[in-house]
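Memo to structure team: turn this sequence into structure tokens by end of day. - J.P.
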Amino acid sequence: MQVAELMSHNVTTCRAEDSLRDAAALMWQQDCGCVPVVDDQQQLVGMLTDRDACMGALSRGLSLHDIRVGQVMSVDKHAVRAGDDLQAALDVMREQRVRRVPVLDAEERIVGLLSLADIAREGLAQSTDAKKRRWGMDLLDTLGNISLPEELSPETLAPRVVARKAAPKSRSPRAKASPKRVVAKKTTAKKTGAAKGKKKSSAR
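Reply from structure team:
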């Protein structure tokens, strides 16, 4: 299946010079969590998410009206093409840890938007349980990678797992020494008992 079959075609966009207030209003009206940022030729220059807007206002201590989209948008343009295979789009989401990717044409103009929600809805519509499970596993793998904290991303997690498996198992020196101490205590107890017995007999 190709990206063009699942992507949203009517994409709301904004400009880098727009205020965050206007961009937030667009997200509210369109019930979406991100807005692609384009230039005069409708070419993609960045992406703005609702989180970008919130953190941008918080970090600057300004109102949304006083901050431009271009000041807080993400300029990492992780995009796919309409003719790309759906698995390729999932790979981009997994590697870049994003839930939505813009879809571009040959001139780098935005023609659509693909989200994990679009893919999930298509998975539910599959005709057999086997197909639904296959879609579910792909979605689970992608969402799991996206949701990992930065320090626990697959790239950093794998070496830890390998190191843990390779580490030799060793007993604690204290654990080895403990049986000797027990034996020593028992031996001392026996000697003490024998000594007491001798004292009693001598007293008699």
